[in-house]
Amino acid sequence: MRVAERIHIRSKYHTVNEETKSPVSETVPVVRAGHYEENAIYQDGKIVARAEGADIRWDSREIHFAEISNSDTLVLPEECEYQKYRLMIQRIEYASRIDQNAPGKGRVLRGVVAEVLGFREQ
Known about the structure:
- Helix content is 7%, strand content 42%.
- The protein is globular, with a radius of gyration of 17 Å.
- The protein contains 2 helices and 6 strands.
- A 6-stranded antiparallel β-barrel has the order 1-2-3-6-5-4.
- The protein is mainly beta.
- The longest helix has 5 residues, at 23-27.
- The chain has one domain (3-119).
């Protein structure tokens, strides 16, 4: 047996079995390149949240969001994409699991500041 045959590198996708997958991940649409929605935030090609009130500030390489909703599947310490930008969320002023005024919005984040890391690949 060759060394290459004995060494088997597994990615994080091979270590997740069907029982540990989130049921939401199966219902989230996968987006093909070029079909990004203006107000959507993506991770791994899937919509994970909706953004409102984006203010792009190039002097500080940040985007300030008034609100991010439906963010239950958004993994905060991981890179995400918004429009043509690659982002890392740095600060959140307010977070609520359920907004009493709009329970259909899921997890709501307000006063969000994200660092612009670069541009997404086309």
